[in-house]
Amino acid sequence: xxxxxxxxxxxxxxxxxxxxxxxxxxxxxxxxxxxxxxxxxxxxxxxxxxxxxxxxxxxxxxxxxxxxxxxxxxxxxxxxxxxxxxxxxxx
Length: 91
Hints:
The protein has 2 helices and 5 strands. The chain has helices spanning 59-65, 81-87; strands at 4-12, 17-22, 34-39, 42-55, 75-80. A hairpin with a 2-residue loop joins β3 and β4 (42-55). The chain is globular and about 40 Å long. The protein starts with a strand and ends with a helix.
């Protein structure tokens, strides 16, 4: 059985666009959604610019991840901002 992964280009407040991965069947990520991503143990907030679901290690996966230089995606989307607000009681 094939393994699928979600890939998203996320714009963060520091002006960077990061290529992030997410579990496509556990987390609903669409263009324009504010998400929380984890980079080297630090949580950042960003907005999804583009996203897709691809088969891991497929030609499409390698084409998209080629922008990183090493074909690896180091940042994970851990949830949406809305989910984090709901967990904290709507703050």
